[in-house]
Amino acid sequence: MVNKKLISKKGWNWEAFWKSFYWYGKKGMTGQTIIMVILVFGSVGIGLIPIMFYCGLNGNRDFYNHVKKTSFII
User: Fold this and answer.
1) What SS3 class is residue 51?
2) What radius of gyration, in Å, describes the C-alpha atoms of the chain?
3) pLDDT reported for residue 1
4) Is residue 35 a part of any domain in this protein?
5) Where are the transmembrane segments (predicted)?
6) Measuring CA to CA, which residue among 51, 73, 71, 65 is closest to residue 10?
7) CA distance 24 to 60
8) Does the residue 2 lie in any domain?
9) What's the structural domain count of the chain?
């Protein structure tokens, strides 16, 4: 029996909202993490609030696409 973990690509992600670019890095999405870190430090921290909302709104979708792109079925 195959154990499949369902990944939702819709909805709000509170963990991604609060941890923002750290959550993306933890999930292995390093390209997006680097871009977010550059934006936050380049804007002297003011860019963190819009990035938090981006992560909350799009975290599930981005992670779904990341898993779909990097995973394979044996």
Assistant:
1) helix
2) 14
3) 46
4) yes
5) 34-54
6) 65
7) 10
8) no
9) 1
- Residue-averaged pLDDT of the chain: 87
5 falls within a domain: no
State which residues form the domain around 36. 14-70
Q: Which pLDDT tens digit goes with each residue over 19-52? A: 999 999 999 999 999 999 999 999 988 989 999 9
Residue 53 lies inside a defined structural domain of this protein: yes
Give whole-number Cα distances, 68 to 9, 16, 25, in Å: 11, 19, 17
Instruction: Classify residue 41 as exposed, middle or buried by CB count within 10 Å of its CB (0-12, 13-18, 19+).
Output: exposed
Go through 5-40 and write b for each residue having 16 or more CB atoms within 10 A of its CB, e for each that does not.
Answer: eeeeeeeebeebbebbbebbbebebeebbeebbebb
pTM of the model: 0.79
